[in-house]
Amino acid sequence: MDKITGYINSRKEQYVEELKDFLRIPSISTLADHKTDMRKAADFVAAKLKEAGIQNVKKIETKGHPLVYGDWLHAKNKPTVLIYGHYDVQPVDPLHLWDSPPFEPVIKDNKIYARGATDDKGQMYVHIKSVEAFFKTVGKLPVNVKFLIEGEEEIGSHSLEEFVNKNVDTLKCDAVLISDTSLFGPGVPTLTYGLRGLSYLQIEVTGPNKDLHSGTFGGAVDNPINVLAEIISKLKSKDGKITIPGFYDDVIKLTKKERDNFKALPFSAKQFAGSIGVRQLKGEKGYTTYEHTWARPSLDCNGILGGFTGDGAKTVLPSRAMAKVSMRLVPDQNPKKIARLFKNYIKNIAPKTVNVEVKDLHGAYPIVSPLDAKATISASEALSKVFGKKTVFMREGGSIPIVVVFSRKLKAPVVMMGIGLNSENLHSPNEHFNLTHFHLGILSSAHFFDIYSK
Amino acid sequence: MDKITGYINSRKEQYVEELKDFLRIPSISTLADHKTDMRKAADFVAAKLKEAGIQNVKKIETKGHPLVYGDWLHAKNKPTVLIYGHYDVQPVDPLHLWDSPPFEPVIKDNKIYARGATDDKGQMYVHIKSVEAFFKTVGKLPVNVKFLIEGEEEIGSHSLEEFVNKNVDTLKCDAVLISDTSLFGPGVPTLTYGLRGLSYLQIEVTGPNKDLHSGTFGGAVDNPINVLAEIISKLKSKDGKITIPGFYDDVIKLTKKERDNFKALPFSAKQFAGSIGVRQLKGEKGYTTYEHTWARPSLDCNGILGGFTGDGAKTVLPSRAMAKVSMRLVPDQNPKKIARLFKNYIKNIAPKTVNVEVKDLHGAYPIVSPLDAKATISASEALSKVFGKKTVFMREGGSIPIVVVFSRKLKAPVVMMGIGLNSENLHSPNEHFNLTHFHLGILSSAHFFDIYSK
Q1: A233 to chain B nearest CA, in Å?
Q2: Active-site annotation holder among A153, A161, A174, A258
């Protein structure tokens, strides 16, 4: 390993120059104008994989942007790692808030500023460089690898999902390795082992068949907004518990070890509240903030609309009101079952004075990767070694739909070895990526392959 | 009177054409874009008053939209009638629910469809035409009249209120005549002797200082929409009672006679519910539907808005949510006191996790007018004569704030000779006005002047 780390350490500047080239390609997947750029970015990835020593590199056409695949499968009796990442980036608007042009990478204060720097070009690139270091020094890898890099992560990963479903054998592996999440903090080695799922519904309440005058009819007719408010108020208790019958039935309780792990992490409620401008946090009774956002289900109204919402006073008793309500789920909650329970509950509590319809808009399964999987333990050791600190295990509150697809279809543990930071403005102006983390990421990737192979 | 009624009867179609011209002016008082239209509508009224034979016609500038005044004061020793109406109309949204454009009047089935048809352009116009009929036939009026037509009824009548307060002598009169209410039913002559008051407020809930990702933060932060729903759900009990402490303290109980009168009026809950497309009515326990809408206070959300309200699913935990809430009041509730009680209550029930602001947008006193005033009896006789039926005395659920100002400042009985129908979609898409009532209204106005002068 000394040879390999020595090789990586001596090429710091070169890696940054290569990353700059990658970041110069404005591969915005959601904008049709950038279709050519998307192909350029895919070609860049394919070329770099080939240069690194990866075999069978190919661009796979889809209905959307191409996938890039490549593998090296000559480590007999050694595990196979599927490495996932994405070469597409978010749009850049509002452009005027950027301090430097989003596709002209600039280094300031040991950070590289550009769209895609941390999400996900910089993070994904570390694995190409670590693989290359093996080939250029010892001529082979200690494990088998399959690279699968997509161009539609920011727009829903639909082509990739279809590809995975149809190519389970091709993608067969012992672990999936992804760097597209965040470190717990700067310099803190971190593995994310859980993601929440999602059940997203829309409630529509219809009362009278037209908007009525609230003077003429007010007092004799149920009001869809009042009814909707009443329904929403019945979704959670004072203690922040979700009151839908059966909602918690499949929730796997947090283990003492997990709770202890979370409690050991530094946390200031004051600082957290201050960072989002609230006086006081509010969460389910009996749990900590990390547990609230990472490991317990939650329910939020995402939108509500009804009646007159312009300036001033219009005395209308509206015909309709609508709310979007979503629930973040944790293992083993099933988004389809939760949507069904939600619908049944709403049907039960809705008064007969109105019509209530509930539509299921979107769902995603939650995931928790086993902490005792060999790949996870290896990744944890690799990170600790490289960062010089004990690896932190955290979960994340959001959903990454494709992670669930990998986990469920390939039945392999997913190692989320994120080396970004939540503060690096992903999806916002002035996105950047810490170059120390970039370098430590390449080393961690290399050590992971080494440790995992033993 | 035969000459006069003959004149009116021969001009049916011309009156409708004139009304169409009036309805073509999109005089929406609450929208700043329509300022020019407001002046056009005021000019239209002024021109029609002059053409009718009214003297001293002038537009009176205000901080808002102009008032139109005109008089004819040459009926010596005869009573003076102040005729009030408004040329402003409600907004038209949701526009897609209109069968024909709101400002392109269309006649279907003897009804004229346009915004403002029944509220209040069509109703107000009958008095201009009845006055004109006197001048064009007998060259004079049997009573003295003062017209006072405003352009801010739908936004609170603030300028008119100020004007009345400062010009009590100019407006001195023996009775106020207003057509801006409803008949009990088609062809049923009706006088309205009571109106509910209004207290209209806006609740604004602010949580985090920006929209947050519901995955990253959901479960740890109070959600402004959920909080707002909770607040709204605490405004009424299951029995339909308003739960604001002190809310009912000043409510005068209905007399047995009034309750008996109301009970004597025909009513079918099934028909009423069917007419507005609901399966079941809902009102305060212990009262009838007429009592709910005419003589008991009520509370309705008029609008609500927060978060993402477009198509599909956006996983946002919104920064803000807003609701408009109004209460209909009955004597002797005071809108200022009610607004204060409302604000205090909201302040008490709002959680510390969010900021809640309550703005007082609008208020109006409730009123009940004496049934034994000479003007009221004359109006009742005129209506019975023209409609060929006994006049019904009812109260109405809406508010006409300025009626209270007239009643309190000018100390004159207010005759509410409404000729609209509650089913005519006032404040809703497809507002319309029955042209038979339009015609009978002109005749009733003329007979009222005649009978009242004797």
Answers
A1: 5
A2: A153
CATH number for position A210: 3.30.70.360
For residue A389, give how far its alpha carbon lies from the nearest alpha carbon of chain B (Å): 25
Alpha helix locations (H) across A350-399? 374-387
Asked whether residue A178 falls in the same domain as residue A58, the answer is yes
Smallest Cβ distance to A220: which of B31, B222, B293? B293
In a domain, A117, yes or no: yes
Give the DSSP H or E segment for B144.
strand B144-150
Residues 6+ apart with CB under 8 A from B400: B153, B178, B180, B181, B195, B364, B416
Contacts of A97 in chain B (CB under 8 A): none
Distances in Å between the alpha carbon of B453 and those of B126, B143, B144, B174, B379? 19, 6, 9, 11, 11
Of A208, A296, A302, the CB nearest to B315: A302
* Same domain for B423 and B340: no
Contacts of B361 in chain A (CB under 8 A): 312-313
Can you give the pTM of this predicted structure? Answer: 0.83
DSSP character string of A82-121: EEEEE--B----SGGG-SS-TTS-EEETTEEESTTIIIII
Ordered alpha helix ranges (H), A243-392: 256-264, 269-276, 289-290, 335-349, 374-387
CA-CA distance, A178 to A415, in Å (whole number)?
6
Which residues in chain A are contacts of B302 at CB distance < 8 A? 214, 225, 307-308, 313-318
Residue A423 inside a domain? The answer is yes
B232 shares its domain with B167: no
- Contact criterion met (CB < 8 Å) for B220 and A293: yes
Identify whether the C-beta of residue A385 lies closer than 8 Å to the C-beta of residue A447. yes
- Residue pLDDT tens, chain B, 454 long: 999 999 999 999 999 999 999 999 999 999 999 999 999 999 999 999 999 999 999 999 999 999 999 999 999 999 999 999 999 999 999 999 999 999 999 999 999 999 999 999 999 999 999 999 999 999 999 999 999 999 999 998 999 999 999 999 999 999 999 999 999 999 999 999 899 999 999 999 999 998 999 999 999 999 999 999 999 999 999 999 999 999 999 999 998 878 988 898 999 999 999 999 999 999 999 999 999 999 999 999 999 999 999 988 888 999 999 999 999 999 999 999 999 999 999 999 999 999 999 999 989 899 988 888 999 999 999 999 999 998 998 998 987 778 888 988 999 999 999 999 988 999 899 999 999 999 999 999 999 999 999 9
Which token pair is A188? 């803190």
- The pair phi, psi for residue A303, each rounded to 5°, is -170, 155
Contacts of B362 in chain A (CB under 8 A): 312-313
Domain total in chain A:
2
CB atoms within 10 A of CB A180: 23
Q: Among the options A71, A88, A119, A161, which is catalytic?
A: A88
Active site residue A153: yes
Complex ipTM: 0.88
Q: Are residues B353 and B377 in the same domain?
A: no
Across the A:B interface, residue pairs with CB atoms under 8 Å apart total: 335
SS3 B206: strand
**Rounded Cα–Cα distance for residues B326 and A296 (Å):** 38
Parent domain of A84: 2-195+366-452
Judgement on whether residues A308 and A231 belong to the same structural domain of the protein: yes
- For residues B216 and B305, state if they share a domain: yes
Residue labelled with tokens 């509930």: A358
In angstroms, the CA A197 to CA A187 distance is: 28
- Here the tokens at position A334 are 């099933």
Look at residues A321, A337, A364 and tell me which one is the last residue of a structural domain. A364
Task: Check B300 against A208: CB less than 8 A apart.
Answer: no
